[in-house]
Amino acid sequence: MKSKEIREKFLEFYKKKDHAQIPSAPLVPDKDSTLLFVNSGMFPLVPYLLGEEHPEGKRLVNYQKCFRSDDIEEIGDMRHTTFFEMLGNWSLGDYFKEEQLKWAFEFFVDELGLDPGRLYVSVHRGNPDTGIERDKDSVRIWKNIFKKRGVEAKDVDFAEKEGMKGGRIFYYPDKENWWSRAGVPENMPPGEPGGPDSEVFYDLGEDLGHHKRSPFKDNPCHINCDCGRFIEIGNSVFIEFIKKENGFEKLPKQNVDFGGGLERLAMITQGKTSIFEADIFLPIIKEIEKLSSCNYRDMVRSFEIIADHIKAATFILGDERGVTPSNKEQGYFVRRLIRRAIRHGRQLDITSDRWLSAVAERVVEVYKDIYPEIEKNADHIYENLEKEGSEFQRTLKKGLKEFHKLNEKKEISGEEAAFLYQTYGFPIELTEEMALERGQGVDKEGFYREMEKHKELSREYSAGSFKSGLGENNDETIKLHTATHLLLASLRKILGSDVYQEGSNITSERLRFDFSFDRKITEEEKKRVEELVNEMIKKDLLVKKEEMKLDDALEVGALASFREKYPSKVWVYSIHDEKGDVYSKEICTGPHVKRTSELGKFSIKKEEACSSGVRRIKAVLL
After folding, report:
1. pTM for the structure as a whole
2. Which of 143, 301, 350, 536 has the fewest CB atoms in 10 Å of its CB?
3. In 3-state terms, what secondary structure has residue 251?
């Protein structure tokens, strides 16, 4: 069954059950500044899970593009990808466990033709510390579902310690069977929704080839182990709780959030044992074979890393709110994906010009009818892939020579890792991966200390050794300092959310502000930025100062230009109107004016290049 048919079957199945189809949200979130990428279908729907009415009703269905940076190191195990599609259905206070589990099973067995004897499920064990009870309701429902299909369904606890013991339904703790945006219950902040879940696993077979090679082969085998035999294909989350200061309360409405991995379902229905052998990846793998003259089976890990990473980079670059490679936030992950793919391209002896674009072209070809934005933004995708690739290729060869000089050492020092990063652009994860391949360690803590030293020296040079970039400390510099916050907010609104502060210098006469951006801004954009700053000044906005923990500051969306520098407690400056609508929120040491009306009129005098990927604005207050 082709992946396109699986998507269509899923949508039609739930439409017949009165679900309205909603579009996939962009990969880069619009309003949730605590999240770099959308990594599941539920994130765009959180307001509705909390009780807000959805315009399409109480039953929804879609397919959602997702990216999980946590899985970058997992690529090469035949089942993980960083970019993937999630098939999702939701009940917003309508149906609950009975219907959801029955329908999920019906879709897998009747629509996709999966053997019910190869399906296993997990449920939440409960947790006395949080007061959440064992999910006996789901166990009862699952037993009835399996019984109707002629499958015995024994429930088993502690399989992770004692093995499967002939079970079909397995209890697991919070780590495996609880879902919220923050993870396990103890990590959830007040106001966060979540709940227990029930996952469905498919048995690929005890004799599966890579199961025999698994480092876990001598451990107790169970459906949630990493041996390779079982693969999760769907998860029904019962979002029925909200975290409060003193524990959990039931939400006014009980919700269902289901997610099923399209790539995994395509793999299973097509009789494959690797995601990368399914139709959704096959054209990409074949293109890499053509470019490298190598066989996929001979270099599985490198093929899968290239295929996954270029696909993910293509979708991030081509997103509606696409970002470009940089050393900040989302841009850092794009850069890391591309550079890691290039390194593995060298291992496959790929020497073709524009090979990154050639792989990306296959990605666009596979997905253009499903996600038209990547075809629309294809030129932007190819341009950034080639630009980033060209820059890294220039230094990679020299950097590898330096890296190989460290071959005799047991551990690469933090200073050496920092040198590889600063001189040759090696992300610390790349140095760590290459070191691990030859049995070396890397002093990561030492690396971050060295990077902090470098940043501190750079700041002192740029700011004249004064805090916050202020060359002096008087009324005029304080006004101009506040103006930099309005300027950054305006730049991010006009040019995009991948714009970040890279440095500033302020005197009594002018401000100088450096920001991440890879091209000259147009006269029209410059005019709009200037007008937006002056609009905020005229609105006489309040400037509020709050002290809070760094993690809390980041959680509420405060921008951090130099995150590694900050202590555990920071000052957050918010610029907002009387209704509480926030125009700017940044971690900063100050000082600032009390209200924006004190600033006068803002005027941009010059915009120019500062360094690669960094622009500079000089402006005054009149």
Report:
1. 0.72
2. 301
3. strand
